[in-house]
Amino acid sequence: MTFRDHDLDDAVEKVTVFPCPGGPLLVRGPISVSNPDGSAFTPTRQTVAFCRCGRSTISPMCDGSHKLGRSGTG
């Protein structure tokens, strides 16, 4: 997965990443995401949660599975 942050200046909103303790990475700001297969998408929400535990069924996005303690493949 690749994250691209465009040239940042005062006129462009900056991207911030906040690691939630025991949970996902919250990414805020304008991003585009490229998957390993080459497909790309631009999230429609201003804040996106990316899974860090490997349990999400909608990877790379977080679905809250870390709260349930379910086994994952990652």
Structure write-up:
This protein has 74 residues and is mostly beta strands. It is built from one helix and six strands, in the order E-E-E-E-E-E-H. It has one helix at 65-68; strands spanning 2-3, 16-19, 25-28, 33-34, 40-41, 47-50. A three-stranded antiparallel beta sheet has the order 1-4-5, with no helix packed on it. Strands 2-3-6 form a three-stranded antiparallel beta sheet, with no helix packed on it.
Which key phrases capture this entry?
74 residues; mainly beta; 3-stranded antiparallel beta sheet; 1 helix; 24% strand
Radius of gyration: 13 Å
Estimated share of beta-strand residues = 15-25%
Main sheet: strands, sense, barrel: 3 strands, antiparallel
Distance between the termini: 15 Å
Helices, by number, come to: 1
Order of helices and strands: EEEEEEH
| Number of DSSP E strands | 6
Helix/strand-derived class?
mainly beta
Coarse morphology: globular
- Overall pLDDT level: 82
Helix content: under 10%
Uncertain stretches of 5 or more adjacent residues: none
Spatial strand order of the main sheet: 1-4-5
Question: How is the topology of this model organized?
Answer:
Layout: E1 2-3, E2 16-19, E3 25-28, E4 33-34, E5 40-41, E6 47-50, H1 65-68
